[in-house]
């Protein structure tokens, strides 16, 4: 195993966390405890320029690209060689299209060792929701449904905002909600409400970010058997686990392919879930 990747690769190093939404509350304790990294947050760092959940500023590419750009900017600002960035996405669950989910990534970028490792988490425990309303009563009904005031709200003039749209974020009190909705109704005749999905206003999301940070630590601790590089994680899932009843291939996982991010060494693990056959419930032949 290559000795250029010591076990304490990140211990006693300072890493900059590219956030303005207090994500250090979820990420820093995990990285500090398990990796020995001292996490700092840059002052005046504006992550909104990389995209907003309110859609008035489009995200820079996909989740990973947006997180990478944040990390690069944070390193440029601080002169550090280690950065962490997080990015979330909300929408239909990839396996259950009718269920909303929160997909989070936490990316670690290490310029010293030329590494980029990403932790991921997906959860259906999210209050991601939105509604256009025409009365204050409807606004408070929606607010109650999504966990207000524990979770924040956003009020805006239209469902598809632009940079010039009227957007009021971080609503955490009844008086704020009343004032915002009254103003929008008088000026536009309607208001569009959404859950505020920024981490500091959404405790549900903060939990999923922490899960992604834990996954990052797990992947860092997985070393390539050939070169010792961290991040030897599953890069590909092979489906085709045979049905226990008829033997037909299903969409259940047959094998996982782990691949090194440096030397491209890979290995295949069959039956990673400890099951050699799939439940007939998931078989297209037995349960069409």
What does the model show?
- The chain is α+β, with helices and mostly antiparallel strands and 288 residues long.
- It folds into three domains: 14-126 and 202-221, Maf protein; 130-196, Dna Ligase, domain 1 (2-Layer Sandwich); 235-282, no CATH class.
- It is 25% helix and 26% strand.
- A hairpin with a 6-residue loop joins strand 11 (253-259) and strand 12 (266-270).
- It starts with 13 loop residues before the first strand and ends in an 18-residue tail after the last strand.
List the main descriptive attributes of the protein structure presented here.
288 residues, 12 strands, flat, Dna Ligase, domain 1, 4-stranded antiparallel beta sheet, alpha+beta, Maf protein, 5-stranded mixed beta sheet, 5 helices
Number of distinct helices: 5
Give the topology string: H per helix, E per strand. Answer: EHEHEEEEHEEHEHEEE
Q: Just give the CATH class of the largest domain.
A: Alpha Beta
CATH topology of the largest domain: Maf protein
- Largest sheet, strands/sense/barrel: 5 strands, mixed
By helix and strand content, what is the structural category? Answer: alpha+beta
Task: Please give the radius of gyration in angstroms.
Answer: 22 Å
Task: Tell me the span between the first and last alpha carbons.
Answer: 48 Å
- The helix content is 10-25%
Low-confidence stretches: none
**Per CATH, which architecture of the largest domain?**
Alpha-Beta Complex
Mean pLDDT: 94
Which overall shape is indicated by the principal axes computed on the Cα atoms?
A: flat
Number of domains: 3
Report strand order across the widest sheet: 2-1-3-4-5
